[in-house]
Design brief:
It is built from 7 helices and 2 strands; from the N terminus they run αααββαααα. It is mainly alpha-helical and 160 residues long.
Length: 160
């Protein structure tokens, strides 16, 4: 099974919340409150998403973070790459972070890159805006007492 990291899942949830309020500078605590993602995790995400060019940081008393561009201009592939590294199913493909010990002899050499290109291309076609549905909660912040199961992730709450 191919699975994205929890950080990538949380990043999409947090960035979706940011996109719902274009032109607003969001604090870590505000984003944590509105999404149910813990504040330390939101802070960690912002420290990764900002250097990747997906969010911008605003200093000062009214500081915080904002999306660097519109949600329809941010691909899911960009978010995955920022948090999980290059989209690669095996170590022997372009952008993989390790070398295969039998790469010179492997009959699959080059074959996996076709699969990776197809997956990367599909993920580049899906934008943050495409992932955004209506907010999962309308009357208050998400949580176990708001009709959600205890321990459910923000992405699962957003999908409800």
């Amino acid at each position: 099974m191919i699975r994205l990291s929890k950080l990538t899942d949380y990043a999409i949830v947090v960035m979706s919340e940011m996109a719902r309020h274009v032109g607003t500078v969001h604090t870590v605590s505000h984003l944590a409150e509105r999404t149910g993602v813990p504040s330390p995790t939101v802070a960690k995400l912002m420290k990764t998403l900002t250097p990747a060019g997906l969010t911008t940081s605003h200093r000062g008393a009214a500081g915080g973070y904002a999306l660097s561009r519109a949600a329809d201009a941010i691909s899911i592939a960009e978010i995955i790459t920022a948090l999980d590294g290059p989209i690669a199913l095996t170590a022997c493909v372009e952008g993989g972070d390790s070398q295969c010990g039998v790469q010179r002899l492997c009959p699959m050499r080059g074959g996996w890159e076709k699969v990776n290109s197809a997956i990367r291309g599909a993920l580049e076609q899906v934008t943050l805006a495409d992932m955004m549905g209506p907010p999962a909660w309308a009357e208050g912040p998400p949580g176990p007492l708001n009709g959600m199961e205890a321990g459910s992730t923000p992405a699962r709450r957003a999908a409800v």
